[in-house]
Each structure stands twice: as structure tokens, then as C-alpha cells.
Amino acid sequence: MAWVTKGGNVITVRPLVEEDRQSLNNSIINDLYHRDSMNDDFFYDRRAISTVYEKDNKPIMFVKGSTVLRLDIQFCNNSNHRNNAAALNELSKIIETAKSSGFSELVFNTDSPLLKAFCCKHFGFVELNNELRRYL
Fold first, then answer.
1. I want to staple 50 with a disulfide (CB 3.0 to 4.6 A). Which of 16, 92, 115, 129 is the partner?
2. Rounded to two decimals, what is the model's pTM?
3. How many degrees, rounded to 5, is the angle at CA 20 between CA 17 and CA 24?
4. CA angle 107, 109, 115 (to 5 degrees)
């Protein structure tokens, strides 16, 4: 697929292929925002759609599209740690249902250090770019 931008540049889009790995890896290594939190395998996830945007056959950017289930959690009483923890333990059912439904990850945001720690410890979430992710 190709199109002409407002500036007259021709941009093409194509699927990511194995031959792109070195260029992708170089761009991650040199990226202040991703070099410590990402590697090239992230874009080669078989459950995702990864593409390369190019100009003159030179990559401009790599894009990964994932099937993600975003969670929003609202507790009725943030101080009731026992009940909140018991209810959170039911997330394991959501994780299994999401996985069997074809989702590749669960994502949510929180400012609560306690909730972050609980979800990372008990459910395998990882913090990445200010959000919690659970890869399925």
C-alpha cells in the first residue's frame, strides 16, 4: 500500500519480515524511550500485526497492532484491602477468558502503588510506559 503525503512524499506500508530485524533492533537500541523496555521480538509476536512504514525503501517506523483487552477498575472502598484483594483474585477468570477468546494482552492504568504491586506479584502484570500489561 502506498500513498502521497501533503508534502508530496510517497509512503509505503508493508508487513514486517524477518529481514527487518536488524534495522528494527538498531532503531530500538538508539531510542531513548524504548531501549530499556523493548526488544525486536516484541514486534514479531505471531498474535499481532506488525507493519513497516517506508519512504524510498527505507524504514520510517514500525507499528505493532495487538488484540488488547483494556480493564478499568473502580473500588467502592479503597481502604478495604481484604475485600479488594479477594475480588482482584477473580481476575484470573478474566485472564483465562481473554486468552481463550484470542486476546494477546490485558492492559490497565493505575496511580495506586499498592494495586500495581499486587497485580505484578499475583497476576504477572508488568509495568511498561506508565501502564500495566499482562501478556497472554
1. 16
2. 0.69
3. 130
4. 100
